[in-house]
Amino acid sequence: xxxxxxxxxxxxxxxxxxxxxxxxxxxxxxxxxxxxxxxxxxxxxxxxxxxxxxxxxxxxxxxxxxxxxxxxxxxxxxxxxxxxxxxxxxxxxxxxxxxxxxxxxxxxxxxxxxxxxxxxxxxxxxxxxxxxxxxxxxxxxxxxxxxxxxxxxxxxxxxxxxxxxxxxxxxxxxxxxxxxxxxxxxxxxxxxxxxxxxxxxxxxxxxxxxxxxxxxxxxxxxxxxxxxxxxxxxxxxxxxxxxxxxxxxxxxxxxxxxxxxxxxxxxxxxxxxxxxxxxxxxxxxxxxxxxxxxxxxxxxxxxxxxxxxxxxxxxxxxxxxxxxxxxxxxxxxxxxxxxxxxxxxxxxxxxxxxxxxxxxxxxxxxxxxxxxxxxxxxxxxxxxxxxxxxxxxxxxxxxxxxxxxxxxxxxxxxxxxxxxxxxxxxxxxxxxxxxxxxxxxxxxxxxxxxxxxxxxxxxxxxxxxxxxxxxxxxxxxxxxxxxxxxxxxxxxxxxxxxxxxxxxxx
Length: 506
What we know:
With 506 residues, this protein is mainly alpha-helical. Helices cover 59% and strands 5% of the residues. The N and C termini lie far apart (73 Å).
């Protein structure tokens, strides 16, 4: 083993990715067939936030291992896990299929394949792969919940309901029970057994409060941040750099945002179907820019005050960093319009408006009752935001806090703003989308009408991936009426916003 490879392994063992990456690159210059070194390099680069290069290295390493057949099924499976972790689900699915073919008796290979297929909107194939996995290894409660979820996606809600009921009857550990209650609520909704849905959601919410991944997040953090924003941002700050921003490598990004389950994923997929648009799907570009601001100015001050202290050179540096983050994540972008879609960037509109005062903002609005219902129902990855919607009253209260901030900051912004109404897009798709495209300086193309065809088979980092892979339908409009009786505890919270946004009262 050569000295550089040994040094790279030592750097990896002490978690020094910055030292390991160039050593591994030199190893590969001499030994391009070293698949293990290429895999390590890919992991290093991804860990260093250079995902465009890192994912390419992981894919190349996976191809090298796949060419070795059954002998390399273990490292290939590990690379599939890495690709899934870093969000390259399409590649993970391809290599998971190769791994399963190379080792047809490996239950883990079929499980990985099922996961990749599920996340790329191929539910029937995912269910078949999961059934293969379960035939090879005794299923635990989590595996049976996943199977039920796939059955629901594949149009077998009764089978899913029976399976989930059996899982819960067995009193599984809290995490599996939480997921089972959430999935059962979704299945009962599919079966139109609406009176049974909320008891399952309340049971899931009680369990979420016991799970470490939810308890790790401070419930007070997001409301406190919103309150700080409301007291510290003003029009003078938000318009401070208007007309004076430094030139950049390309036109300002378009920020697509709203609230959880408001229709941002639908809008994203429509825009992504346009050949002049590239959409960044739920990537933390603005949160990382916010961290960079706090690193530049470590004083214990609100974000707004740090922005007031920022000079022209600092502004230029942060804007340049934004585009560097984009390139590190996606590589060169050839489309003229870059859309940064992170739904809850709404909370960071003060930062966005100050640093990018010329950037177009697309805000997606939907009936507050449908938004809160859907957010409460959905199974989402734990985060400082999603922990807010695990309990019904808290979900409505958090929505009101975010929308109160939006209503306050909207007239203070110097940015051009387009408010897309979800219900208008459903009722008159072409008119609403033509208006949106016109706002972005784009013309109509027929491809946007068939946006759902592009979503099928593509990974979408949102719980809405199943819906947006179908033609547009009106079934999600006024869904709250099916559960009208459940809105009494939150009516006082939501009624002012229902009126303010022009939706009909109950």
